[in-house]
Amino acid sequence: MKVAFQGMPGAYSEAAVLAQFGSGTATLPYETFEEVFSAVEGGLCERGLLPIENSLAGSIHRNYDLLLQHQLSIVGSITCACSTA
Fold first, then answer.
1. Taking residues 57-69, what's their average pLDDT?
2. How confident is the model over 26-46, as pLDDT tens digits?
3. What sign has the CA pseudo-torsion 82, 65, 43, 8?
4. CB distance 4 to 32 below 8 Å
5. What is the DSSP letter of 25?
């Protein structure tokens, strides 16, 4: 399975992908949240993993807005105290 995330390889979001889907998952990093949505809608990835809430920043309002603009749905959630070490 290919899963898109926003950030660089080794980021917490990539660690969350691997925690949720397993170490055999192909991760595809994108620079922006919008690019993650496009990758999933365009069929480049089967799933995308994006933060909706962040313990430091609170709600990620941009991703709520993107959910309203795109025909994608939340299909799961993860609470992750992921380590990149």
1. 85
2. 999 999 999 999 999 999 999
3. negative
4. no
5. P
Tell whether the torsion through CA atoms of 84, 76, 34 and 58 is positive or negative: negative
The whole-angstrom separation of Cα 48 and Cα 4 is: 4
Segment 25-34 long-range contacts (CB within 8 Å, at least 24 positions apart): 25/1, 26/1, 26/2, 27/2, 27/3, 28/2, 28/3, 28/4, 29/4, 29/5, 30/4, 30/5, 30/6, 31/6, 32/6, 33/6, 33/60, 33/62, 33/63, 33/66, 34/66
Supply the pLDDT for residue 81: 59
52: helix, strand or coil: coil
pLDDT above 90: residue 78: no
Q: Check residue 45 and give its pLDDT.
A: 97
Is residue 72 within 8 Å of 49, Cβ to Cβ? no
